[in-house]
Design brief:
The chain has about 80 residues and is mostly helical. The chain contains 3 helices and no strands. It has one domain.
Amino acid sequence: MGVQMHFSNPDIQAKLDQWAADTGRPAEELVEDVMTNYFDELAEVRQTLDSRYDDVKSGKVKLVPVEEVRAYFRAKSAARRSQNS
């Protein structure tokens, strides 16, 4: 006999119950799959962030100052507005 899954949030519980009913899979199996995928994705994101940090730290990638980014998008927005006028 499997473990009964219960969430205190009724919306999550309803979604899990519906998903289990729709797929015919036990709720605990669905939650285990979700958690496994979540941890795999989290590890991948962490690896990407570590790599990007190393690139910035080594000088391989140059950071763009926020004011430069704002100015770029303001100019782009102004150009688009003038085209549509």
